[in-house]
Amino acid sequence: MLLATLLISCGPGGRGGATVKPGPDLPPTDKPIELPAIPSRIETTLVAPLTGDTSAARSPVLDVMVAENQRWMATLTKLPDPAYYLAYQLVEQREVSLDAEGGALVGDRDETDRILDVEIRVGSPELDNTRALSDDANGLNEPMPRRAVAPFGNDSLAVSNHLWLETDRRYREAVQALTYVRQDQRTLGKRAGVPDFAAGKPEIYTGTPAVLTFDKAAWVARVKRCSERAFKGVATRGSCGVQFTQNTAWLVNSEGTQLQLSWTTAQLSVSVGVKADDGQGLGRLEQAFAQTPAALPDEAAVDKLIAAVTTDLDALHDAPLAEPYVGPAILEGRAAGVFFHEVFGHRIEGHRQKDETSGKTFSSYIGKEIMPTWLSVYDDATIATLNGVQLNGFYRFDDEGVRARRVDLVKDGTLVDFLMGRNPIAASPTSNGHGRKQPGLDPVARQGNLVVAAARSVERADLEKMLLAEVKRQGRPYGMVFTDISGGFTNTSAFAPQAFKVNPVMAYRLYPDGKRELVRGIDMSGTPLVALQSIRAASREVETFNGVCGAESGWVPVSASAPSLLLEKLEVEKSFIPADRPPVLGAPSIRQGGVR
Amino acid sequence: MKRSVTRHAHLIAAAAALCALAAPAAAKKVAPLGPPSRAVTDDIIDAIAEEMDRALQRLELPDAPKPYHIAYKITEVEVNDAVASLGHATNKKARHFVNLECRVRVKHDGIDNGNFVVAGGDGIDGTAGISLALEATPRIARRAAWLVTDQAYKEALVQLRNKLDARTAGGVGGSTVQSWTAEAALVGDEPVLVAPLESLDDVVARAEKVSSLFRGVPAIRDSRVAVTSYLERRWYLTTEGTSVTDTRRATGVMIVAHGQAADGQELAQYFTRYGRTAADLPTDVELEREARTLAATIGALATAPLVSRYVGPVLFEGEGAVGVVRYTLAPHLGGTPLPAGLRPQEAKLFGGAFNDKIGLKVMAPFLTIADDPTSGVAAGKAVIGGYKIDDEGVAAQRIEVVKAGLLSNMLTSRTPASATAKSNGHARRTAKGGAFHGTATNLIVTAKGGLAPAALKKKLLAEVKASGLAYGLIIRRFDDSAVTASSEMSRRELLQMLSNADLELPPPALLAYKVTPDGKEQLVRGAQLATFSVKAWKDVIAAGKTPTVFNFLASTDGYLDHKLGGVDEGFVPSSGIESSVSTPDLLFKELDVVPSTVGYRARPALPPPSGP
Which architecture, in CATH terms, is A55-318? Predict the structure, then answer.
């Protein structure tokens, strides 16, 4: 199953914390290009977190969770190692997936789980069991996946017994961890002054239980038909699949929060692949996301997705390998969104500013200009749609029970804030509703719906003219245009260069005569501050990339919306191509039967 | 039938074995048979066979050896399983999938790529797998066979290169024994029909009903009941001309309960039963009785003393006898050479203590041991370790391994240990390096002159007296971490376990009793065999008269793997090699037992909730 369309490899999520001195001003950029004062087009529909509250739909499970939480806290607060915070999250998820390959059904799954997470904090908000140790030789600062479960249904005895069991395990583990933390703090010469936990206000919300409805036989037929159509051209793999989920999450904490959230999701994927003659695995993936199966693209729209991926794959198969390059480049809308997600978004996650092992790229740049003054960036999980596209990163409350809200990160080119969960930093002592995780892991600050907004923009066609002008000015033989990026990684650890690498799927050389040539086998690389300073222009149209992002708190749905961007300089390097070769024998004639 | 393999194949005669598998004497009623596969039909086998023939004739890279043997295993699995706790399901799944696995051997059978572990790349083993469609689609099967054969071939070349290099460098030593044995081709295309699965609703209902017995039992900290019903259809296809099919079918139930002793030590008990259908399992009433017994045992263990260090006679009774056979004897009955390229400590985990001992005394003269995968019944009870064809396409055979204490044979696969060795149809367990190893699956221990239970206990006490001891020890159950592992441990505790564990020891005993000269028994906890050499089998001084027959799924992961990873609480035991042991009680003259020091933790600050 293909889950990762955005991928990040992050350093440990530490909680050390230190006072940060302001960073130096960044060097002035070249003379900016004059751009018309017309903003890029962003039209959103917002959903306030508390809309649709239906207290009549409250599940008895919430009452069981509240009672057990209160029963434990009445005792734990009085113990020699007192707990000061206890949260329960119960996530029931039904996941249906149907996968077809070349016209045949290869996967048919329908499973339901109810995962229990217990978060317990022992000590005090200033210093608790979650504080990272200064020496992480045994990986003790790494999150430890624990998959506790609870019985289905509302049976009080059964559910509360599992809450009791996991609370006992977690409390014991927390007390043990705090012992190590205290010992570590005693031996440290310089102790961090930033607390480990930010208090929150109680939230109460009851969402109506969502019900997943779909016609299975019809969807089996659709994915089979889709995969048969996708299996064309040079492809040795042509797959289509759908994944539907029905989710209900209950969250209760000792601050008084009681949440019941329920939603469905639907995802359709079209994927084709082949191995190039030099061994490089080539693939194209298009995905569509919706709230319900019925809202997924119709047949005609799916056919367009199929046409796009198969045409691109055939072209990639014949495309030459590119050479390393430094020069001007355009990142088209969705590619620009992924670029911002990787290069900027992950570095603006609050807990990384505290982690002693992190490079803290932006920690000292609050109040400083880090990108052109006509660019602003924010993250807003309350956006349901942007320019008519449903956003994957929508949610009402984060996984720490904090209400979602818009967070301005960069205003008019100046860094103003970070994405925060309940792990505070000196610059942001409270959560702004971005503590996120997948069930079974500990939450950290994560992106939701990242939006790049340009106050000045040009038409897309003009952006290309500006690229060619830059090509001429820099004396380069061609410029680069990137239309699709599959993902990438960014190193935030201080032990290695603060560099990013993103993997373009569709990369073109644009020559001065207007000729476009598709190339393959390259990665974009660089360092974030330089890359952001290199942005010269943006397009009027804004596109959205919907996907799933993986980091230390697991996989979470996200979106990144951005206009197409012109960069004065972008570095491109050869990507790793494994020492492999295509199949030794030619493909059997699988479409006609018989052996070729 | 287009299959070229049929041209040079001859039929096997395994009728007697098939009859035994199809109609166990102990089956309470004969269930109607289900339909054959709709995913893997003759057309699918033909499509894969065509690709196999094409690969054998034409698959070759310049200056590299060609494949000389290609084998495919198609596996179709259907599973309905559920886990429940305190009367309610925590997990339920209906699964159906089809896999195609290809194994390629390159160069020639004198020296090929097999049974070698590439340093830093133990996944490079000349084997590759891919999913097949759930509905018969020959063109997809042909494409899958093409891709998977290509991948396996390239891996086999890498594996061979490393193996030859290692031999040249002397790291793994040279061997004059050939790498692979030729076997006669087998053809048996008729589907083996088995009873349909119990429905998911039935499986869920049973798990919920039995699990509710633990509601409100104060001694039980955690509990779960899992029920699984599955079938596994297999097809083997090789370039030698073999084309056979087989089907395995099992239904199982697992009851697990955890508690905590007064001093904080973790306690666990389990009850598992497997049969070929639900008809072979205990009734709900019997299961509920077993659940109550587990709960009572946990309660008794909570106040039982920790075993003291002990050196003396140990009587293994019932499941305890099964355990001592399973953990200390069975791993050494395989005659497949240990994988080359592994560190000796790691290689030991694959057995090998009886290597080069054919004809020598290895155990007490009154003991005889056989493995019989052709049988569906042992001592009148249904056993699940039977099969028609092993994982290398060789017909199953009954093999007498030990006769009157003398090692007479080994359980072999097609990777031979000597120039004259041949497979006797016991290739079941894979090890690093990709080779199948000779494995016991229906192991039968018989004892001449077996004693009745009272006489055996008397013999134990006589030995206690002769040794000048105050008491003897009876072990009635060993731990099975694939069943009982829980997620109780913190990361720090796991780290300690990883660095301190002795991987060669059998698991701790879960049920052990001190027995004093007056015959009184006292439950003790924490009994761990301190060391166990296979030489101890020479010092079995008595055995019982009546065998215990026990079915289980032998996990391919080690004890520590499960302890470290924890058993997912949604886990259902439907993976592992279907196995059984039939053995009488066994009295060993002298073994070392030490108290287990693991699993201590603070008691909960709160009692469990009492419910509404």
Answer: 2-Layer Sandwich (3.30)
State ipTM.
0.88
B207 touches chain A (CB under 8 A): no
Among the listed residues B352, B543, B370, the one whose alpha carbon sits nearest the alpha carbon of residue B450: B543
Are A591 and B139 a contacting pair at CB < 8 A?
Answer: yes
Contact B601/A at CB under 8 A: yes
Three-state SS at A275 = strand
pLDDT digits (tens, 9 = 90+) for A548-578: 998 889 999 999 999 999 999 999 998 877 7
- Cα–Cα dist A456/A245, whole Å: 40
Cβ–Cβ of B492/A140 closer than 8 Å?
yes
Asked if B90's CB is within 8 angstroms of A149's CB, the reply is: yes
Check A149 against B96: CB less than 8 A apart: no
Look at residue A307 and give its three-state secondary structure: helix
- Cα dihedral A120, A122, A127, A131 in deg (nearest 10): -50
**DSSP calls for B286-353:** HHHHHHHHHHHHHHHHHHSPBPPPEEEEEEE-THHHHHHHHHHTGGG-B-SPPPBTS-HHHHGGG--T
Q: Measuring CA to CA, which residue among B194, B286, B187 is closest to residue B236?
A: B187
Condensed to tens digits (0 to 9), the pLDDT of residues A380-430 reads 999 999 999 999 999 999 999 999 999 999 999 999 999 999 999 988 999
B224 contact residues in A (CB cutoff 8 A): none
Domain boundaries, chain B: 4-246
* Residue B345 to residues B339, B348, B351, B496, Cα–Cα distance (Å): 12, 5, 11, 20
CB contact B135 to A (< 8 Å): yes
Measured between beta carbons, the chain A residues lying within 8 angstroms of B569 are 147-149
How far does A207 lie from chain B, in Å, by closest CA?
Answer: 23
Report CA Rg, chain B.
Answer: 25
Chain B residues 569-598 with a CB less than 8 Å from chain A: 569-570
pLDDT tens, residue by residue, B423-455? 999 998 888 888 899 999 999 999 999 999 999
Tokens of A466: 């500006």
Domain definitions of chain A by residue range: 55-318, 321-574
Residues of A in contact with B64 (CB under 8 A): none
Give the C-alpha separation, B32 to B23, whole Å. 12
Interface test with chain A among B490, B498, B564, B567, by most A beta carbons within 10 Å: B490
Tell me the CATH class for B4-246. alpha beta
